[in-house]
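Hi there,

I know you've been waiting on this one. I reran it after we fixed the sequence typo, so this is the corrected version. Both the input and the resulting structure follow.
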Amino acid sequence: MKEKNYSSPSYKPLYEQIKVLLTQSLIGGEWGPGDMIPSEIELASRYKVSQGTVRKAIDALSTEHILIRRQGKGTFVATHSAEGMKYRFLRLTSVDGQKEYLQNEFISCTKGKADVRMGQILDLKAGASIIEIKRLLTFSGRPLIYDHIIVPASPFKGLNGNRVEEKNGSMYSMYESEFGIRMIRAEERLKAVAASGEAAIALALLNGEPLLSIERVSFTYGDKPMEWRLGLCITDNHHYMNELE
């Protein structure tokens, strides 16, 4: 098969160009979370490239957890509703490795306006409408994380405290199922801080006790920032675990 020329002034390897085309189909909603995408042979025919080029593009998207290969079944769009993906970005782990029962305790959900800093983080104009959520994450009944979340209001029209309370689970799963927005990657910044104010009260700590601060920005397709989150974590018998490749 003669491969189609997708060359452009800013040249990318052919498989990366196919990766972009596949991503555009995901952004456009051709395949939703949990859907099976066409076979490599079908995609090779569609894009007029070799099956090997398609396979390399799918491999790259699989590495980024955008697609998931299932042996003998096909390739599927990853979903935060899947058991192994619900808490994909949650890295706080018991020091003894025991599996824990996770629950959320709702604190508040309010509407507000983005300040200059939040506008820069979420790529919004200062003064744009935002939704601010606060909740407590408990591990086997013990409060361990004070979660402060901000999302732009426009893509999450209808998001309110009742919906957050009803779901009582992964926010990313709710974003995906209720609003069609899937977070595909996140950036985090960690530092040690002292407990204070509402967070100290919610976590039953004295002012000044140590916490791990995890500031996260999550992105959807097209590298668009869609959520800012600050998690203040108790780590006396838990640690932050990450896998480096």
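Quick highlight: The longest helix spans residues 14-27.

Best,
R. S.
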